[in-house]
Amino acid sequence: MIRSDRRYARLSRLGALFLVALLQPVFADANSTIASGWTSKYSASASYNNAGCALCHEKSDTSGTRWNSYGRALKQALQSNLLNSALTNIESINSDGDSGGASNKTEIDAGTQPGWRAGSGNTIFDSTLAAVGPTVSPPATISGNVDPVPPPALPTLSIGDVTGTEGNSGTTPFVFTVSLSAPTSATVTVSFATANGTATAGVDYVSTSSQLTFSPNETSKTISVLVIGNTTFESDKTFTVNLSGPTHATIADGQGIGRIVNDDLAPTAATLSIGDISAPEGNSGTTAFVFTVTLAPASTSTVTVDYATASGTAAEGVDFVPAFGTLTLPPGAPGGLITVLVNGNTTVEANRTFSVQLSNAVNATIADGQGIATIIDDDGPPLEGPTNFQGLWWNSPAGSESGWGINFAHQADVIFASWFTYDLNGRGWWLVMSAFQGGPNQFSGDIIEARGPPFNTVPFPPLNTPGGATGAFVGSGLLTFSDENNGTFAYTVNGISQTKNITRQILGAAAPPVCVFNSVVGAAAATNYQDIWWAAPAQSEDGWGINLTHQGSTIFGTWFTYDSDRAPMWLVVTALQTSSTIYAGDLYRTTGPPFNAVPFPPIGSPGGPTVTKVGTATFAFGNGQTGTFAYTVNGVSQAKAITRQVFRPPGTVCQ
To answer: In total, how many domains does the chain have?
Structure first.
């Protein structure tokens, strides 16, 4: 039905114009053609929500709460963000159900589009868009969008890098942060996995893989990778954590780099040194000359060095068996041993020398690459008078069990033996024995363990006085000598019985002195101080003493005294001559294998004794039988007047 009500038409045009004017700023680009057409027809001021919009509401509705099909379609389209389709579709249909069947656009262009009213063949809707007494079906649901609004962009995922130190042990967590660029109402997931760079899984870090889940509005998650600590100096290393397979997000930065920073100090350059050795050749067979190779400091890497013997005045193949090879020191080893066999004979001849040369060191440098061996001839004419065994002895072959020893003070038919070894717990332990001669070159006696006041006690109470040292019987010993340089030491200590082959310990190239009991050279006139000494005046501090082995310009001192808990303690010093009557050196304390260990590993070998510097010592002699012993031990400094200990007058003198 086409109406000619001009007044109503003007109102309709005004409502339509302002409906378009309201929507045009938002959708101007897409709707410019349609909107322009409407604008040219309508000039009134009314919102489509307003009752004045006759195109949208029932004609008689002044409250704007009863909607016609046209208004319902517009409102529904706006709620669905489909305005462009709404304008296009609504223009092409006949939404008022009039019998003329003209489209809305035709009627709008002709200015004849009316409002609607109930009961006139139109469907009226309430404010909820529910139909109120429909007489015709509402327009079809609008679909499509000729000007789509793009969906909101997905948030992006990024993973950060991590730099940290590895640590020395265990594991250190490297925590990577994964960030979401903006919160979202969706649940976001992303997979991750580690990958090697210069770092190796299982060696430098623990590989891992899994999935992260971001709950709605959550924007940060973490990934923890365990880095394996070590103490090896090495270059910095890297590995990566890689993101993949995101849902409801995209990946902006999908690779986190883990940089493992080395925190271990570069190793101090290790140096190798080989020591010298002097020993008798023996009368037959071979004697092992054991050279000690020292590595300082111990290395964290395997160290190797080649070695080979070289003739001096000793002839290869005649005086010694040539030896060559490679010495291998595992990580942490303080050194090793090289053994060369020396041929024994009964020919009277001069002392001879040969050397062991080090070369081609790997993971170390060579500080002292030549070890000199002095073969001491032991085939001279027999000594005049009884043989005297005074001096320092150790296990035979020489150096095979370095770390323990036994001193003999030999006066007439008595040997006072001071044995420096280790108890069952590896603590330094000394025992003494007054051994009496029972046959040719054979001496035996009881073995005593002493306990006494700490070494720095002032005054130091003598043996068997209140607070003084006390002795306890722990076993027995037997010394048997085959010649002036070789013998056996058989003992039973706390029920443990063993026998050791022993030989004189030679300190350097100089031959040991000749010692004579009741010598025509009195002690005061002696210039060699090899003997047992104690505090002066004699017996004033009975219970401790010091054995001096004097060869050439070197004095090796073994001091038997007591620790702070009154337990036996021994210290050693290699004192070098600094003037005609003064000798000085560092004091060392040693721990090692129990005395009954079989085999007994020597110093410098795995499980062998370890040596720790604890102070210094100086000997100053007034004459051949008086002197001063000054020392500093663990910060405690003292000086003692000392004299030779004589238990069989007039004593023994070595020259």
So the answer is: 4
